[in-house]
Amino acid sequence: MGRLLLIIPLLLAGLYCAQTAPARNELPGDTKELSIKIDGLKRTARVYVPAGYDDHALPVILLLHGSGSDGRSVAWQSRMSEAAQNRGFVAIYPDALPLDPEQPASANNPRVWADGSGRGYSGSHPENDVKFMSQLVALVAREVTIDRSQVHIAGFSNGGSMTFRLATELPGLFHRVAVIAGVSWVHPATWKKQDLLYITGKKDYIIPPDRNIASLPHAPIQLQTSVNQTLLQWMDQCKAVKDQSGHYIPGDLAGRFKQFQCQNHSIEYLELPRTGHVWPGGQEDPVAELDATAVVVRFLLDRKS
Question: What pTM does this model have?
Fold first, then answer.
């Protein structure tokens, strides 16, 4: 526990340093700053629209940041806009509300998604985040020609947990789902399950893959869950696929990769042996076992329905 208490302040400091990283817009596309009022609260997001695809209805990937971070930071960490330019999709980076939405976000007032763990303002008003996502996609669709059948969502940490929530509460909006280092805090009876990619790090001490999670940064929680419980939610008449190689997984990680074919969806699971609580291969990953952005994009865009 002492080690965890030492790690958390360092993690939070790193997240807020990332927010102040220089926003180099060397890509040829257009970065938009959008805002929308939801139940009287201003919600914000960054959107990257790639250049050179004017005649196409573009796929969309929403990428949700972790707690204490924001959309600008996760865009920088993941380099998702570079992938959007290369592959031709719209990248959306929404911002969570601070714990106290009446005050500016800061290290003492971090942004936290209403992921079901009950933390912060959004924990008491989860409908605001859910409304925000559906209205944000509609707003982007009015400004950019998008393929509404190819709207996908991905998230890291608290953003990954929020991704699970949105996948279950807005199943008709999101076609495929990718989560890194997040767990599901909600337990719906049933929903139309989407294809899921789940990536975790064996050295992750915030969302460990092998034990229950009973505490989180930024605010107390009353619930417990685990990576295993989360994956069991998505298992529905699932069978392991004989070919477990993973056509876009590096060969040295093939033994850590598992595929399951379910009744109407599929699940892909990858555990990285040396990775901690970071976006794998991102700006702040000292190990870089995997280019998670490339893997997530290939999973979301290249899988056959």
Answer: 0.90
